[in-house]
From TrEMBL:
UniProt similarity note: Belongs to the LacAB/RpiB family.
PANTHER family referenced in this protein's UniProt entry, alphabetically: RIBOSE 5-PHOSPHATE ISOMERASE (PTHR43732:SF1), RIBOSE 5-PHOSPHATE ISOMERASE-RELATED (PTHR43732)
Species lineage: Bacteria, Bacillati, Bacillota, Negativicutes, Selenomonadales
Signal peptide annotation: none
Active site: C67, H100
Source organism, top-level taxon: Bacteria
GO molecular function list: ribose-5-phosphate isomerase activity
Stretches that traverse the bilayer: none
Cross-referenced SUPFAM superfamilies: Ribose/Galactose isomerase RpiB/AlsB
Keywords, sorted A to Z: Isomerase
Official protein name in the record: Ribose 5-phosphate isomerase B
InterPro entries: RpiB, RpiB_LacA_LacB, RpiB_LacA_LacB_sf, SPI_LacAB/RpiB
GO terms under biological process: carbohydrate metabolic process
Species this protein is from: Pectinatus brassicae
A Pfam family it matches: LacAB_rpiB
């Protein structure tokens, strides 16, 4: 089996989440769907925390979050210790958020980008490795600060 991807959305991102799940499954990824499971209005933060906590507890997993803009999901996911969630709206950012920042959660907005664009961003994000070197120090600095803030 392939890498495990933990995915979640609110009601606005539900259809895009289902599309991304299908694409991931066709590419041999293991999916953990944390919800939501329909288009009834829900609080995006609930799903950001569910995905964030799973990824933070299991660093070998990566997460994907989708809401209307991706903004709320990224803000809430980044409240979970150990999470480096990045909102992505273009291919270059999808690549750099992994290469430079070792993002472990990808956030996207279903009201901002198309499903097919989201899949292209997801593929780039999944295929890009962290560059290490000076970027490792930068990521470590972020994570150290997280441990000391109150």
């Amino acid at each position: 089996m392939g890498e495990t991807i933990v995915i979640g959305s609110d009601h606005a991102g539900f259809k895009m989440k289902e599309f991304i799940i299908k694409q991931l499954q066709e590419n041999n990824y293991v999916i953990e769907d944390k919800g939501t499971y329909n288009e009834e209005s829900v609080d995006a933060g609930i799903y950001a925390v569910l995905v964030g906590e799973e990824v933070a507890t299991h660093p070998e997993k990566r997460g994907i979050l989708i809401c209307g803009t991706g903004i709320g999901m990224s803000m809430m996911a980044n409240k979970v210790n150990g999470i480096r969630a990045s909102l992505v709206t273009d291919l270059f950012s999808a690549q750099m958020t992994r290469a430079h920042n070792d993002a472990n959660v990808l956030c996207m907005g279903a009201r901002v980008i198309s499903e097919h664009m989201a899949w292209e961003f997801t593929k780039v994000w999944l295929d890009t490795e962290h560059l290490g070197g000076k970027y490792t120090k930068r990521v470590q600095a972020m994570m150290e600060y997280e441990k000391t803030r109150k």
